[in-house]
Amino acid sequence: MANKGKRYSEARAKIDRERRYELAEAIDLVKESASAKFDETAEVAIRLGVDPRKSDQMVRGTVLLPHGTGKSVKVLVFAKGEKEIEARDAGADFVGAEDLVEKIQGGWLEFDKVVATPDMMGLVGRIAKVLGPRGMMPNPKVGTVTLNLRETIGEIKKGKVEFRTDKGANLHVPVGKVSFDREKLKDNIVSLIDTVNRLKPPSSKGQYMRNMVLSSTMGPGVKVDIASLKE
Length: 231
Description:
- The chain is built from 8 helices and 9 strands.
- It is α/β, with parallel strands linked by helices.
- Helix 3 (82-89) links the parallel strand 3 (75-78) and strand 4 (94-96).
């Protein structure tokens, strides 16, 4: 344990808190500084030049990470009839309607993502106060209210993640595990950056992507040189 703490301290000491590192170097530093007993998640935090108080400057979307998140995602689907069968065939972990609403109202939350067919949204609205604060409420803007269950469930299982700006105009997005090799993490991060850039609101003025930090679950943050992402 002492050796592990020493390794962490040595890795942290290598990080210049004022310097902005090229992406490849930042990834190596984050991988090196991860010292937990579990496989930590690598996460990107991006500060955007938007005003999240204005609806036309809210940045929200999804990205299908080329190499996934490294996490097994449990998908719950609200559907009936043929769509219920489609959801089960597509690999959904839980499928139902009123029965699932009752379970969730009773405190059950053993799932990660929620998808619903449009006709189920009236029912899902009963648990909006439970799902909403956890970022699980189905939303057509990110494709989780849909009739195309097979494709949607497949993409979520492969590593499709949602993101949206918080009150401070920041995005926090998981981009894989620290056990991923450098190139896989780099591919995932570049895919995220490309997607965020495409979603730049027309009304956003000045520099759009202002700061970016890469970190692991338990590790220190490493500032990334945004200019290096354009290479």
